[in-house]
Amino acid sequence: MHLPFLKFQLKKIGEGGFGAVYAGIRITDSLPVIVVFLWVFQVFKIPLEVNLMQKVSGGPDSIGQSAAVSLLDWYYLDKEVIIVMERPDPCMDLLKYFVLFAGERLFLARPRKLQQSTC
């Protein structure tokens, strides 16, 4: 069996009710990535998360060129979907960004910064 996550050095950064998130480095070219393991109970041909990311990002060839984080790859393994995305540097999750800038009119005052800083 091909295990795609062996292409990456990973460190767990979070876990929730639907999966776990890892920060990592792609071994082949040292690209910083986020790898999301989603536990799925019902999978369609293309999971919704993957479908939406394909629509908003420019794909693997648009790394660093799109406001949306680029989807690099995805895998379906039995009851799990693995999503690999670029990890811009610097970055922080959206909740931390909201907490940091509480009280500001976030989407009006800092839209460009938000696009560049969240992952």
Automatic annotation (TrEMBL):
<dbReference type="InterPro" id="IPR011009">
    <property type="entry name" value="Kinase-like_dom_sf"/>
</dbReference>
<keyword id="KW-0067">ATP-binding</keyword>
<protein>
    <recommendedName>
        <fullName>non-specific serine/threonine protein kinase</fullName>
        <ecNumber>2.7.11.1</ecNumber>
    </recommendedName>
</protein>
<dbReference type="GO" id="GO:0005524">
    <property type="term" value="F:ATP binding"/>
</dbReference>
<dbReference type="GO" id="GO:0004674">
    <property type="term" value="F:protein serine/threonine kinase activity"/>
</dbReference>
<keyword id="KW-0723">Serine/threonine-protein kinase</keyword>
<keyword id="KW-0418">Kinase</keyword>
<dbReference type="GO" id="GO:0005737">
    <property type="term" value="C:cytoplasm"/>
</dbReference>
<keyword id="KW-0547">Nucleotide-binding</keyword>
<dbReference type="InterPro" id="IPR051138">
    <property type="entry name" value="PIM_Ser/Thr_kinase"/>
</dbReference>
<keyword id="KW-0808">Transferase</keyword>
<dbReference type="GO" id="GO:0007346">
    <property type="term" value="P:regulation of mitotic cell cycle"/>
</dbReference>
<dbReference type="GO" id="GO:0043066">
    <property type="term" value="P:negative regulation of apoptotic process"/>
</dbReference>
